Amino acid sequence: MMTGRAPARARAAQVIAGVVEERGIEAALAGSPSLCHALSLVVRTSNTFLGSLMWVDWLRFLGLQ
């Protein structure tokens, strides 16, 4: 069983992807599909980058890096 910060961060990433992207961006920009796609790309890329940084922090915390 995993304990610590990693599971909470994974949940946070899912919340960001689900709430911000699907419900926020798509609802706010329903009339402009190209802007919706561009902003969605920015959110997904940022979320991936932050998730990678969080894994590095988690590995350092465990002493694996």
Q: What features would you describe in this structure?
A:
It is a single chain. By secondary structure, the protein is an all-alpha fold. It has a domain at 34-65. 83% of the residues lie in helices and 0% in strands. The protein contains two helices and no strands. α1 packs antiparallel against α2 (33-62). The radius of gyration is 15 Å and the shape is elongated. The two termini are 21 Å apart. The mean pLDDT is 80.
Helix content: over 70%
The largest sheet is: none
Structural class of the secondary structure composition? mainly alpha
User: Beta-strand level of the residues, as a percent range?
Assistant: under 5%
**Average pLDDT number:** 80
Question: Helix and strand string, N-terminal first?
Answer: HH
Poorly predicted runs:
none
Overall, the morphology is: elongated
How far apart are the termini? 21 Å
Radius of gyration: 15 Å
* Number of H/I helices: 2
Quaternary organisation: single chain
Q: Write down how many β-strands occur, each being a DSSP E stretch of 2 or more residues.
A: 0
Topology:
Blueprint (H helix, E strand, L loop, with lengths): L4 H24 L4 H30 L3
Summarize the structure.
This protein has 65 residues and is mainly alpha-helical.
Which structural traits does this protein have?
65 residues, mainly alpha, 2 helices, elongated
